[in-house]
Amino acid sequence: MDKSASLTGREAFFEDDEIIVSKTDLKGHITYANDVFLKIAGYTEAEVLGKPHSLIRHPHMPRCVFKLLWDTIAGGDEIFAYVVNRCKNGDHYWVLAHVTPSRNTNGDIIGYHSNRRVPDRKIIEGTITPLYEQLRKKEESFDNRKEGMNAAFNDITELLESKGVAYDEFIATL
Ligand SMILES: Cc1cc2nc3c(=O)[nH]c(=O)nc-3n(C[C@H](O)[C@H](O)[C@H](O)COP(=O)(O)O)c2cc1C
Predict the structure, then answer these.
(1) Which tens digits make up the pLDDT trace of 74-130?
(2) Which residue segments constitute the domains of the chain, with CATH numbers given?
């Protein structure tokens, strides 16, 4: 089924003092989700545990953002990213996610951890929504999904180069 068919276009919100938390294994399968996660996404714990995190993927998210996320965390670094997620009922919610690798005592990466807070509305509306729309259009202009993702990824790289900043700095100074 095309999941986008059941999107409501309605935005869901969580509180400024709430943190949405989930943890995954190395492949991105959910190993932990806190109550705030379950409440806003509209799932029970049993419905999310063991599932790929793409369970809550929203079709408006550009693929290249997830490529950047995975390249960064698999390389051992942390990343901040604005993400729109899909609730079980088709609503959506925006977050500012901080995703980090979790390590064992030997320093090996054994999974990943994401903490998400309420994002700044002005940044979502003024910068992120138009940027993601542009990236998604670029991706959809290719027949081949991977080629589209790489082309949009190049667009992000060029945008950062034109501003003379690294991704972290770009996000931190929005
Ligand atoms: C710790 C962690 C948290 C993640 N959180 C989300 C999330 O909230 N929403 C989301 O769509 N993808 C999230 N992802 C990325 C997904 O694993 C996946 O790459 C993404 O949904 C794209 O899925 P697709 O490649 O099947 O389209 C997370 C990954 C990790 C490791």
Answers:
(1) 999 999 999 999 999 999 999 999 999 999 999 999 999 999 999 999 999 999 999
(2) 8-163 (3.30.450.20)
pTM value? 0.96
Burial of 61-92, coded b for 16+ CB within 10 Å and e otherwise, reads bbbbbbbbbeebbeeeeebbbbbbbbbeeebb
Ligand 1 centroid distance, CA of 57 (Å): 7
Q: Ligand 1 pocket test: which of 22, 23, 69, 87 has the largest number of ligand atoms within 8 Å of its C-beta?
A: 69
Summarize the confidence of residues 11-23 as an average pLDDT: 98
Helices (H) and strands (E) in the chain, counts: 7, 5
